[in-house]
């Protein structure tokens, strides 16, 4: 059976959605494929997010990820919006939810760490829900 494709999206695809893509690949690669995208490109991923994810998880997002537009990713089954506090981007999908995460951009490291840990919890919980759903469908 093919793995579900999950897209983590927000407007700029430079911080929270990038962190979620990295942590999705790290914690849930066995259950779903992770992508991130937005409606606007940034020249680089938020370097504070890159540093925190590397410090906490040993993942170098600069080597494996870049800012992408919605049309740059494949069709997905699940869309997770980060909590844009504006009009969040939308993609066709079978399931959509909003994680309501505050953007840590421009804030202290503690906010980035808090956001990373929240994303970790939510990715693991999503992995468990998708795994349970897949087992129950058999």
Structural overview:
It comes from Zhenhengia yiwuensis. This is Arsenate reductase ArsC. This protein has 138 residues and is an alpha/beta fold. It has a single domain, classed as Response regulator (Rossmann fold, 3-Layer(aba) Sandwich). The protein is 41% helix and 14% strand. A four-stranded parallel β-sheet has the order 2-1-3-4, covered by helices on one side. It is globular. The termini are close together. The model has no long low-confidence stretch (mean pLDDT 92).
Order of helices and strands: EHEHHEEH
CATH topology, which one?
Answer: Rossmann fold
Query: Distance between termini?
Result: 10 Å
Overall tally of structural domains: 1
CATH architect. name = 3-Layer(aba) Sandwich
Assess the beta-strand content as a share of residues: 5-15%
Q: What ranges have pLDDT less than 50 throughout 5 or more consecutive residues?
A: none
InterPro entries: Ptyr_pPase, Ptyr_pPase_sf
Pfam families: LMWPc (PF01451)
Keywords: Arsenical resistance
Protein name: Arsenate reductase ArsC
Ordered list of secondary-structure elements with their pairings:
Blueprint: E1 4-9, H1 16-28, E2 32-37, H2 47-57, H3 61-64, E3 78-81, E4 95-98, H4 109-137
Parallel strand pairs: 1-2, 1-3, 3-4
Helix pairs in contact: 1-2, 1-4, 2-4
Short description:
This protein has 4 helices and 4 strands; from the N terminus they run βαβααββα.
Keywords:
alpha/beta, 4-stranded parallel beta sheet, 4 strands, 41% helix
